[in-house]
Fold this sequence. Notes:
This protein has helices spanning 16-27, 77-89, 133-149, 167-183, 192-200, 232-244, 278-287, 305-308, 339-356, and strands spanning 6-11, 32-39, 47-50, 53-59, 70-73, 93-96, 127-129, 151-160, 250-257, 264-272, 291-293, 314-321, 328-335. It is α/β, with parallel strands linked by helices and 358 residues long.
Amino acid sequence: MKKDGYKVAVVGATGAVGNMMIKVLEQRSFPVSEILLLASGRSSGRKLKFKGEDHPVQELTENSFAGVDIGLFSAGGSISAKFAPYAAQAGCVVVDNTAHFRMDPEVPLVVPEVNPEAITQYTVRNIIANPNCSTIQMLVALKPIHDAAKIKRIVVSTYQSVSGTGKDAIEEMLNQSREIAQAIQWSKDDGLDGLWSSLRNFRTMKTNVYPHRIAYECLPHIDVFLDNGYTKEEMKMVWETGKILDPAIKVSATTVRVPTFFGHSESVNVETETKLTAAQAKDLLSKAPGIRLWDDPVKNQYPLTALAAGEDFTMVGRVREDTSVENGLNMWVVSDNILKGAALNAVQIAEILIEKYI
Ligand code: NAP
Ligand code: 3JN
């Protein structure tokens, strides 16, 4: 560490991720000498608390970054595309939470438990990218498995909470859930027909955020559809795994939005070059950084969003051998998407930066 304190800017400070970044900086006692909270002009005049004191939210401009050491960006890809280069030019190291720079060969893409050494490359553009939340938790869980048995192929299905879409999505799910729960007067003695026809009234509902109702529903649609039939969220998992862990690994992903608040869950299947028993895998996982192994199904102990939300670790459980192939494992992986999936991972990157580089 070359300084006692660093001037830190949080871009998108009023958002779900930005808010959590402020909290994580505070909770981890990151050495902040001055905090600069930036958002759109709409938020000018608002105040946010950091270490018990009110700080004004200021409008992000091209000139926001004079004297700023570290910029934590989470205001969307187009905002990063436009403003991160101004920050970098002013000497600020950007840790960007959006997809915009992730696959840029000159920008390191980092999960501290997986490839911390990649940070060295930050000097090329003064920008470091934070991966997608679904990639981060999957790779935290798979790093020890890959090191021990070399993963050849991953098949993953995600169950992603609405907080991954931001504040408006949380509100949309809550409003829809309330409306439906209040409208349906049903008890188990009524038979299913009444419930079925009541639910039909909510088949189409006015939505602002998602293309369909999210309350009591699963949507196999996150981010936009691409020409190959996959969504961009699915392809982010494919592309980012190659860049962070190993380009030789084949990845097939299905990403699904489910009506949970915080925490993404993933069913992860891997095929490995050499055999790992479930017991060996559990032993490795129990010793790996950032992981809490929670795997005693007989006692109903397996990862849940209720247990992972608000926690720094990635929970792994239901570890079992895949009986359909020679060398394969299945597991259930849950992590807080706003914490480890975004804000915490970004602050961990900043911690390595100040410890080793600036
Ligand atoms: P959110 O709750 O909707 O917040 C958006 C934030 O961006 C707000 O602070 C907003 O400020 C700010 N913003 C919007 N337009 C702006 C502008 N023109 N200039 C400056 N600030 C502007 O969204 P979120 O869930 O926090 O997500 C924000 C971004 O983080 C996403 O778009 C995504 O790129 C990234 N993200 C990454 C992950 C991940 O997987 N690593 C997960 C979630 C999100 P106002 O309040 O003033 O409008
Ligand atoms: O949907 C989720 O659960 C995670 C959302 C991530 C996200 C949302 C909007 C834009 C991203 C991201 O980080 O990949 C982006 C983006 O920057 O493309």
